[in-house]
Amino acid sequence: MALLAISQKVIHWIDFVNQWITFPKMPFTPRDKASLLAAALETIEKARQERASAPRPIDVFALRKRLGMTQQVFANRFGFSVATLRHWERGERSPTGASLTLLNVIARNPLVVIRAIRVRDV
Fold first, then answer.
1. In the chain, pLDDT over 90 holds for what percent of residues?
2. Do 42 and 6 contact (CB within 8 A), yes or no?
């Protein structure tokens, strides 16, 4: 849902509360509405930042197949054990932490990772 649509829903909700408030001597002033809207938008932005900073879940099986690699090749190329890869693909475990971050980078640009960890002759 777009931020504008969410803002409009928040404003609508504030107006609804303002109309049905049980203490008519304490309606929301325009300043109160602006304050509540600012707080709601700040909360929405924090949630968006948290969601953006957390690596998204990866379907490891689909990623490996998309790259056309066997489990052995994928595991060796990117530094995972074959057993761990199997657990992820079967859904018995889920990648977390650095592994999940690495899988996200692999999903976006596998060549960057391959180049970065490639062993070079000195």
1. 43
2. no
pLDDT of residue 67: 96
What per-residue confidence (pLDDT) applies to 76? 93
- Dihedral sign, CA of 26, 28, 31, 32? positive
Domain ranges of the chain: 3-53, 60-117
Counting Cα atoms < 13 Å in the Cβ hemisphere of 10 gives: 20
Structure-block tokens of residue 55: 């690596």
| Cα dihedral across residues 37, 40, 45, 46: positive or negative | positive
Q: Is the Cβ–Cβ distance between 78 and 63 less than 8 Å?
A: no
Q: How many residues does the chain have?
A: 122
Of 108, 115, 114, 111, the C-alpha closest to 58 is: 108
93 and 87 Cβ atoms separated by less than 8 Å = yes
CATH match of 60-117 with 3.40.50.300:
no
pTM (two decimals): 0.57
Q: Give 116 or 100, the one with higher predicted confidence.
A: 100
The residue ranking higher by pLDDT, 66 or 4, is 66
